[in-house]
Amino acid sequence: MARQAEQNRGVAQWVENKAIEERKATLNAVNKISTEERLTELYRQSVNSSGVRIVPGDKLGIHHRVANYWQEKPFNVLAAMGVPAVAWIFYGRSGQAHLQTQMKVMHTRVMGQFSVIAMLLGLMGFKEYMDRNGKFITEEDANTRVIEMHQVREQLKLRLQHEKDVQDANAQELAIAHAADVAAGRVSTINKHKKPHSKKPDSKNHKNKKNKETTITAHANATTDAISA
Predict the structure, then answer these.
(1) Which keywords label this protein (predicted)?
(2) CA separation, residue 95 to residues 58, 88, 90, 98, 101 (Å)
(3) Is residue 52 left, alpha or beta, with left meaning phi > 0 and alpha meaning psi from -120 to 50?
(4) What is the distance between the alpha carbons of residues 42 and 65, in angstroms, rounded to a whole number?
(5) Of 46, 172, 185, 209, which alpha carbon lies 20 to 30 A from 66's?
(6) What pTM did the predictor assign?
(7) For residue 137, what are the contacts with CB-CB under 8 A and spacing of at least 6?
(8) Which residues of the chain are modeled with pLDDT < 70?
């Protein structure tokens, strides 16, 4: 019974730990999705505020394309409109036989200059309007820009992670090399300061040697005294 109760407690604990892990994983996934959604919204707001006007769909209308071209190349539009206008003015004056050629050219120049200046003012005004409100892009183009921003962010994260891994690896190699150098220096220091063991003299032999020297000294003194007597 005790074994069965212990097994039941183990199973209950495992189930509880599993449930906690699943809740954490779910919470992390929800947080990640929420973060991705916020980033997507921020990127979309950045695209909207970058000087563009988003048109629903995946294609621009003819008037949208004309307006974009008008904004990007106003002088090309001016040339395309001015040259036919001046030619039409000259052609209209050529039907008047009572006018001389010089008068026809002068009329064409005056009226042509007026027409071109009026067109230029109109074109520049429309270009200013487009610059202030932004060019037209499709919703698909806007989504593509958002995806590109996500890709740039992921690439930046991968590059930063790679640089961090390289730095950690270099730091680990330096730590290992430093530890090896410290160990080698400690061994050499111990060998350098290690003193050889001196052999202690035998006390018994030392004592015998001392007694022998004393006997010899006494015998020499006795001999000296005998000679002196």
Answers:
(1) Membrane, Transmembrane, Transmembrane helix
(2) 50, 11, 9, 9, 11
(3) beta
(4) 27
(5) 46
(6) 0.48
(7) 52, 53, 54, 55, 60
(8) 1-33, 186-229
